[in-house]
């Protein structure tokens, strides 16, 4: 999201390094109104950016995002009991994504996790996925490597670093982790580094009182995705993914501070306080080493 | 006739009061915003009532720059936000900054945490920027030195 920081080419002697300062920050965001409906049209005068604590109103550019396609990974927590409802919602998601024109076969994968590590259920051929066979209804589960799996899926999505691709991770989970080597921060940073928006589907039985709900909400809010309880239904989830894809804008502005580390970014309204702007929660300057 | 005179008198009073209100309205620009501890007194009271176990609530803190003075103002609750328009209109009431939130058609009250004359604030900003530039240059030199050592 921040422009390239340094470059080196074959034509240049190997002992010479070209350096250029990062001077521009780019943020892609979508906007919803007080009823949670996506705003199709947004003006630069509708918002200001708070980068660190600096308020930025002068933008170098503002335009509809140049996304041309979606790269989608569905990450399923198979360690908890797989209920019939969860399996049905999963089947719906696979079917709905399969019917979406902006997602080529090679850009759609399903990953599950339980016990020690995540496993790819399908890639390139997920439209033919038989969820009943792959995710049988089971009464009890095993260990839950949630954070490791988020890191795995984020890196997988970020492998193709085409800037015109919006990377989406749809996460079916209760937010609990029992065995990961990676931490919550590692998982979050990996999603941010790979420019992955996490859309969480909370499968907790009591989402309002579950600590895992906070984890899922945090993943979604900080990466520019959304959070849904499983009861909301997957149609709503897919609608949100597609609306955010079609109604996204990209704004570029001068880097306001060269302070090292994580720059927290918020997009806030300039006049209508009911507007909500969904974007990733910040960036690393100069850049963060991958976890 | 009596009614007409009364009506004219009312009109005059209304225009005078509106003019007074407009005169007292000031304009400024919010240039910084961060989340900080909510206003000290209320927080310490709540904390003492709850045995000091209450987590600190975060409130928005803004730097509001006017022609002559720069104010640091803090909200009273975590959901008290101000639209970040280019121009913020406000007035003072009981030592508080009252900001008009036009779209929401209400006013929001903020405590004044600090205030400083604008030239003084600008000098401190220039110093901060100079320090940042010097720090960046030092980092670059350090990086270049490390690259040289590795070769």
Characterise the protein shown here.
The complex is a heterodimer of chains A (291) and B (151). Chain A has 291 residues and is of the alpha/beta class. Chain A has two domains: 1-64 and 248-271 and 282-291, no CATH class; 69-245, Rossmann fold (3-Layer(aba) Sandwich), CATH 3.40.50.410. Chain A has six helices and 16 strands. In chain A, the strands form four sheets. Chain A has a six-stranded mixed sheet, sandwiched between helices. Chain A has a four-stranded antiparallel sheet with strand order 6-13-3-15. Chain A has a four-stranded antiparallel sheet with strand order 5-4-14-16, with no helix packed on it. In chain A, a hairpin with a 2-residue loop joins strand 4 (47-51) and strand 5 (54-56). In chain A, helix 1 runs parallel beside helix 6 (234-246) and helix 3 (146-158) packs parallel to helix 4 (184-193). The radius of gyration of chain A is 19 Å and the shape is globular. The two termini of chain A are 18 Å apart. Chain B has 151 residues and is an alpha+beta fold. Chain B has one domain (2-149). Chain B has a six-stranded antiparallel barrel with strand order 1-2-3-6-5-4. In chain B, strand 2 and strand 3 form a beta hairpin.
């Amino acid at each position: 999201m921040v422009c390239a920081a340094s470059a080196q080419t074959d034509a240049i002697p190997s002992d010479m390094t070209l350096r250029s300062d990062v001077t521009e920050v780019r943020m892609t965001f979508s906007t919803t109104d007080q009823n949670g409906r996506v705003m199709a049209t947004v003006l630069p005068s509708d918002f200001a950016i708070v980068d660190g604590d600096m308020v930025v109103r002068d933008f170098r550019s503002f335009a509809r995002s140049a996304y041309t396609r979606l790269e989608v990974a569905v990450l399923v927590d198979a360690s908890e009991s797989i209920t019939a409802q969860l399996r049905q919602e999963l089947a719906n998601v696979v079917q709905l994504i399969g019917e979406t024109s902006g997602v080529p076969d090679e850009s759609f994968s399903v990953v599950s996790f339980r016990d020690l590590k995540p496993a790819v259920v399908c890639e390139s051929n997920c439209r033919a996925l038989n969820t009943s066979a792959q995710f049988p209804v089971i009464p009890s589960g095993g260990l839950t490597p949630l954070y490791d799996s988020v890191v795995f899926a984020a890196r997988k999505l970020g492998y193709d670093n085409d800037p015109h691709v919006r990377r989406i991770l749809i996460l079916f989970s209760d937010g609990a982790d029992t065995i990961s080597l990676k931490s919550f921060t590692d998982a979050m940073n990996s999603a941010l580094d790979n420019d992955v928006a996490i859309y969480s589907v909370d499968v907790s039985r009591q989402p309002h009182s579950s600590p895992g709900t906070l984890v899922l909400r945090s993943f979604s809010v900080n990466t520019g995705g959304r959070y849904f309880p499983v009861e909301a239904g997957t149609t709503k989830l897919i609608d949100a993914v597609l609306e955010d894809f079609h109604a996204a804008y990209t704004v570029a502005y001068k880097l306001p501070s060269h302070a090292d580390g994580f720059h927290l970014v918020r997009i806030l309204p300039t006049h209508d306080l009911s507007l909500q702007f969904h974007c990733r929660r910040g960036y690393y300057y100069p850049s963060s080493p991958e976890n | 006739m009596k009614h007409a005179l009364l009506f004219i008198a009312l009109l005059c009073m209304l225009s005078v009061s509106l003019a007074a209100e407009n005169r007292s309205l000031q304009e400024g620009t919010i240039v910084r915003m961060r989340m900080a501890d909510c206003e000290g007194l209320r927080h310490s009271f709540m904390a003492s009532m709850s045995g000091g176990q209450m987590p600190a609530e975060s409130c928005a803190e803004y730097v509001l720059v006017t022609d002559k003075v720069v104010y640091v103002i803090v909200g009273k609750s975590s959901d008290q936000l101000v639209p970040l328009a280019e121009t913020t209109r406000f007035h003072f009431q009981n030592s508080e900054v009252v900001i008009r939130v036009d779209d929401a058609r209400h006013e929001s009250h903020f405590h004044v945490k600090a205030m400083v004359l604008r030239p003084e604030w600008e000098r401190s900003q220039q110093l901060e920027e100079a320090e940042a530039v010097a720090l960046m240059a030092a980092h670059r030199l350090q990086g270049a030195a490390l690259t040289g050592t590795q070769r």
